[in-house]
Amino acid sequence: MSGDVARARRLLADAERIVVLTGAGVSAESGVPTFRGAGGLWKSHRPEDLATPEAFARDPRLVWEWYASRRSSLAGCEPNDAHRSLALLAFSHDATTLVTQNVDGLHHRAADAVAPEGADPAVAYPLEVHGALHRDRCSLCDRRTQGRTDVDATSEAGIPRCDACSGLLRPDVVWFGEALDAATLGAAFQAAHEAAVCLVVGTSAVVYPAASVPELTLRAGGAVIEVNPEATTLTPYAAVSLRGMAGTLVPQIVPAGVGRVR
Ligand code: BV8
Ligand code: ZN
């Protein structure tokens, strides 16, 4: 085991409170394209240009085409060992808060899959600061419903409408320029401030305010562990920065004996 992996394991094992921030990279090995990686670009559009309320107002059909294709490709994706190990960490270390920027729901599915006998899977459900792609939200009355899997985005007429008010439905995700849910973000920031260790897995750490999570831990005197095949802007501030894939490294650094419910 490399010295850095051992150091990361020790930091996590000794941490009184842990906050974990994940990004698209934690789901890459599950087949979910990242935002800024090679497979991340979508046709000729940049996510930053499509994931905005302006784009939806301008061309709801195009935005739904992108989200409907992401929703249907997610149906074939399974959680990977990184999702499962992070869920086991939350079950075995009860002062662990998972925070994800992802909208793919794979952390929830991992928690449901690995929950020890008698444990409440919600213990390992993450704070989803950017919402969830499997839910729809009415753009008029804000009503939330289970996401439609039969969206026909080939024409404006095929875009789903709210059963209650006939408003256009949208994916229940936070777009660029939109505020995050204050309670969810507040809980993430609280956990970050109190954490002895912030484990950052698979994020380029460019999107705010989510990227403030590790910064808050550092500012409060905590340590950052990073897992990413590439260096990021966070790397110089990390106590340990592990170069590699989440599915390989996260199971190695989550403390031994993980999975025993305390
Ligand atoms: C806000 C949901 C204010 C949608 C997402 C100018 C104008 C307007 C706003 C701004 C501006 N400048 C800055 C801003 C703020 C803006 C922002 O930060 N922009 C960035 C681009 C500079 N933020 C916002 O707009 C936020 N809102 O500020 O509101 C406000 C306040 C009050 C009232 C009104 C308004 C909202 C941001 C949320 C946007 N929504 N997602 C959707 O999913 O479609 S963000 C999107 O990016 C995803 O959630 C994604 O997770 C997130 C971050 O990206 P990453 O997860 O890091 O993914 P990325 O591809 O970048 O990196 C993947 C990493 O994994 C890489 O480092 C790679 O090396 C690594 N990797 C790859 N494979 C693996 C791996 N790691 C490990 N293992 C592997 N196998
Ligand atoms: Zn409605």
Word description of this protein:
This protein has 262 residues and is of the alpha/beta class. The protein has nine helices and nine strands. It has two domains: 1-32 and 79-130 and 180-262, TPP-binding domain (Rossmann fold); 37-76 and 134-173, 2-Layer Sandwich (SIR2/SIRT2 'Small Domain'). Strands 3-2-1-7-8-9 form a six-stranded parallel beta sheet, sandwiched between helices. Strands 5-4-6 form a three-stranded antiparallel beta sheet, with helices on one face. Zinc ion binds next to loops.
Q: Give the CA-based shape.
A: elongated
Share of residues in helices: 25-40%
Number of strands: 9
Are any ligands bound, and if so which?
A: ligand BV8, zinc ion
CATH topology of the largest domain: Rossmann fold
Number of helices: 9
* Largest beta-sheet characterization: 6 strands, parallel
User: N- to C-terminal separation?
Assistant: 27 Å
CATH architecture of the largest domain: 3-Layer(aba) Sandwich
Poorly predicted runs: 257-262
How would you sum up this structure in a few lines?
The protein is an alpha/beta fold and 262 residues long. Helix content is 33%, strand content 16%.
Please name the defining characteristics of this protein.
262 residues; Rossmann fold; SIR2/SIRT2 'Small Domain'; 9 strands; binds ligand BV8; binds zinc ion
